[in-house]
Design a protein that fits this description.
CATH superfamily: Vaccinia Virus protein VP39
Shape: globular
Number of strands: 9
Strand content: 15-25%
CATH architecture: 3-Layer(aba) Sandwich
Largest sheet: 7 strands, mixed
CATH topology: Rossmann fold
Strand order of the largest sheet: 5-4-3-6-7-9-8
Number of helices: 7
Number of domains: 1
Amino acid sequence: MTLPPRRKMVRPPTGGSEEGRGKPARLKTAKMRTPSSQAWLSRQINDPWAAKARAHGYRSRAAYKLTDIADRFGLLLPGQRVIDLGAAPGGWTQVALERGIHRIVGVDLLPVEPLPPAEILEMDFTDPACGDLLVERLGGPPDLVISDMAPNTVGHRRTDHLRIVGLIDAAVDFAESVLAPGGAFVAKAFQGGEISEVLTRLKRSFAQVRNVKPPASRPDSSETYIVATGFRGRP
């Protein structure tokens, strides 16, 4: 007797949207990737904030860090002038444009795909000519300076931290020299003793200074954000 052909049992898909997966996704191949690269890619694939950014069309998950800060502190108001330091890949600039900011100039060492009407300069922020050029292109003093800059690391914890603090100091110097009265400053920082010195310095020139950690910042990261509002001028 000839038996009928057996049917293949196919498990129905478990579903899941771009903003949430049912199970952690795995890399299909680890070929030509270092262990640290594999870990980073795996984390990105399974990161709900990264997935949410892709669904919304943001260029990076960092966009949600700025939206949280802006909502909490009343920043990014329509008509303001904004300077974006460390703009690549453009997520923070996207948020600013969404909120009615049409005069925004950014800078980064890396190239950034155009985001009109924003203007993004490809140059080193620490170049002495950069600060004046940013203000010139903006057409006047900024109401808000935002910085998501982070230096290239060398793997030595103390050295890397000092580089981070040095970059924050440079951003503070710039903000204090160009901000309009009542302006605000937002900058990425990392937990450490030297950050308290930066906060103390900012309290001399701003009415309110806070150190915050947005929900989109990974819990296991030492990353925080300095938010200074009510610029009073250099002491």
